[in-house]
Design a protein that fits this description.
about 240 residues; about 5% strand; mainly alpha; two-stranded antiparallel sheet; 13 helices; Rhomboid-like fold
C-alpha cells in the first residue's frame, strides 16, 4: 500500500518546503479570487514602475499564472531538486536555487531596460512596433495608458522557471551523461545535450519574440547564473567534476 507519510518524508527538506510554499501561494491566489491582486505586490515589475519593490526579486518566483505553469515547474523542481539537494547539501542547494531565481529576475530587468522599454521612453513608436510587434502595441491601446508610468505597471513576470532552469543547468554540469527522456520520445538523451538544446531554444524564442508571453531571457538568466556558480564551486573543489 502507498505510504504518503513515507513518500513525503523521503523528499529532502529544502525541496519539500519549496514545493509547499509554491503550492500554498497558488492556493492563496485562488482563495482570494481576484479580491487582492497578489501579482501586483509579489510579481516582478520593471524597476521604474510604481508597483516595483526589491522584495519582488524573491517573491516573484513563488507565484504562478495558472495550474499548468505551477505543475510543470513543480514537477521539474521535484525531479531535479531531490537529486541536487542531496548532491550539494541543503544550505548550498537553497543558496543556488534562490541565486538562480534572482539572476533570472536581474536579466529580465536588463532586457526590459534595453529593448522595448527604452524605445518607448524615447517615444519612437515605429521602433517600438518593430521590436515587440503588434501585440505589444495592442497592450498599450487596450489598457489606454498613455502615461509611461502606468504602462510599466502592466508588465509583470512570475514563476519559478528561472530557478528551475538553473536546476536543469546544475544537473547537466554535475551529471552530464545521465540519460534523460523527453515526453513521448522514448530515446535517451544525455543531460548535457538536453540542457544545451533547451538553452538554444530559449535563446531562439527570446530573440525572435516567439511565445512572447514567456520570459525566455529570464530562463536563460537562471541558467547563466547557475553556470557561473557551479563553475566556481567546481574550481574551488566544493563540488565534484561530474558524479555520473
Amino acid at each position: 500500500m502507498f505510504n504518503s507519510r513515507g513518500f513525503f518524508s523521503s523528499i529532502p527538506t529544502v525541496t519539500k518546503n519549496l514545493l509547499i510554499i509554491n503550492i500554498l501561494m497558488w492556493v492563496a491566489t485562488l482563495a482570494l479570487g481576484g479580491k487582492v491582486d497578489l501579482d501586483k505586490y509579489l510579481g516582478l515589475h520593471y524597476w521604474e514602475a510604481s508597483d516595483f519593490n526589491v522584495a519582488q526579486f524573491i517573491t516573484y518566483m513563488f507565484m504562478h499564472a495558472n495550474f499548468s505553469h505551477l505543475f510543470f515547474n513543480m514537477f521539474s523542481l521535484f525531479m531535479f531538486g531531490i537529486i541536487l539537494e542531496r548532491a550539494l547539501g541543503p544550505g548550498r542547494y537553497l543558496f543556488y536555487y534562490i541565486s538562480c531565481g534572482i539572476g533570472a529576475a536581474l536579466v529580465q530587468e536588463v532586457v526590459w531596460t534595453f529593448t522595448w522599454i527604452d524605445v518607448l521612453k524615447l517615444g519612437d513608436q515605429n521602433g517600438f512596433v518593430a521590436l515587440q510587434g503588434q501585440e505589444a502595441l495592442n497592450y498599450l491601446l487596450q489598457y489606454n495608458v498613455p502615461e509611461l508610468e502606468r504602462f510599466f505597471n502592466i508588465f509583470v513576470t512570475i514563476g519559478a522557471s528561472g530557478a528551475v532552469f538553473g536546476l536543469l543547468l546544475a544537473f547537466a554540469m554535475l551529471f552530464p551523461n545521465m540519460p534523460m527522456y523527453l515526453f513521448f520520445i522514448p530515446i535517451p538523451i544525455k543531460a548535457k545535450w538536453m540542457v544545451i538544446g533547451y538553452g538554444l531554444l530559449e535563446l531562439a524564442f527570446g530573440v525572435t519574440g516567439a511565445q512572447s508571453t514567456v520570459a525566455h531571457f529570464a530562463h536563460l538568466g537562471g541558467m547563466l547564473f547557475g553556470f557561473f556558480i557551479i563553475w566556481y564551486w567546481k574550481k574551488k573543489g566544493v563540488v565534484g567534476g561530474g558524479f555520473y
